[in-house]
Amino acid sequence: MNGFSTYQETAVSTQSRGRLIVMLYDGAIRFLRQAIADIDAGDFAAKGKHIGKTQDILFELNSVLDMQAGGPIAQNLRGLYNFMHMHLAEANLKKDPRMIREVIGILEELNQGWRTITG
Question: Model-level pTM?
Answer without folding.
Answer: 0.86
